[in-house]
User: Fold D-galactose/methyl-galactoside binding periplasmic protein MglB from Faecalibacterium prausnitzii.
Amino acid sequence: MKMISRRDFLKASAVVGATAAMTACGGSSSTSTAASSVASSTAASAAATNGSANIGVCIYQFADNFMTLYRSDLEGYLKDMGYSVTIMDGKNDQNTQTEQINTFLQQGVDVLVINPVQTTSAQTIVDTVSPSGTPIVFINREPEESVLDSYKGKCCYVGADARQSGTYQGELILETETQGDINGDGKITYIMCKGDPENIDAQYRTEYSIKALTDKGKEVECLYEYLDNWDQTTAQQDVANALSQYGDKIEVVFCNNDAMALGALQSIQQANRTVGKDIYLVGVDALVEAVQNVVDGNMTGTVLNDDVGQATKAAEATKLFVDGKDVEKYYWVDYVKVTKDNASQYLKED
Ligand code: BGC
Assistant:
C-alpha cells in the first residue's frame, strides 16, 4: 500500500483560503535537486504563451535545509500551474541576489518570488523592481510593512508568524516532566542557538520561547546566546563548547531551527548527555531527520514550519498576480507543535 507523503499529508491538512486561485493549485510529486531546479536562463527569456507566464524565483541560499524543501515544493506548484520557472541561488550574498533580480527584469519575467538575503534590503529591492511594474511575492524573510506599502497592490508577503513558533517551543519545555527544571533548583537554565540576527524568525523565536516560560511564572537563566546563523556545524561546535564550559547546568538547548538542533544533538550525544533525562532540546521546521529524532526520543520536540502551506500560498499569490487579480498584503500559514505523540505523521518524505 502506498503511504501518504509528507507533502500530501500537509497539503490535505492545510487550511487554505477561499479564493478561486486556491483550487487551481494541484499537488506535485516534483522533488528537484538544487541542480535540476535551476532552469536555463533561456527558459525564462522565452515569451509567455498560451496564458502561461515566466516566474523568476530568488532564494537566499540553496544550502539551507528548510529552503531546499520550500523551493522544491514551490517549483512543483508553479510548474503545475503551467508556468516556466527559473530559480536562482543568492548564495547568501545580497549583491549576487540583486544581480539575479536585475537579470530577471531584463528578461521580462512576469512575477518575481523573492526570499531576500537581507531583509533590510527589501526596500532597495522594491525600488529596483517597481519602475518595471513587475509584481513581487516576498517569502520566508518578512520585510517591514512600510516596504510592502511602498509598492501597494504589486507586492505581498507569504510567511508564518514566528512568535507562534517560539511560543510552541516554550510550551514543549513546559510539557516535560520537570517543566524544564531538571535539577529542581527552581529555575530553567538554558542556552540558545540563534539564526541570522537580522531575521525576524530568529528574533521572535528567541524572544517568545522564553516569554512562554516567564508568562507561566517560571524563573529562567540564560547562560549564553550563540549566533549560529541557522547552521548545523556552527551550532554543533558552539554546543560542544557550551557543554564543556557549563556542564550539567544546562537544562535546555533552544535552537531557532532544526538544522542547528541536529548539530546540537550530535554534541549532546558526544558529551554523554541524554535528551529527556538530563537535558531537553527543541528546534523548529520539522525536518524529517529532526522528526525522526523526536519519535526516537532524541529531541524533546520541534515545530512544523509548513513549507507545503507556504509554498502553496506563494504559488497562489503568484497566480493572482499573473491573472491580474487583487492580492492581499499578507498571507499567513500556521505553525504546528510536533511532539512524540503526533510526530510520526510528519515523517513521510515525498
Ligand atoms: C527556517 C530556517 C531557515 C530560515 C531561512 C526559517 O523560517 O526555520 O530553518 O534557515 O527560515 O530564512
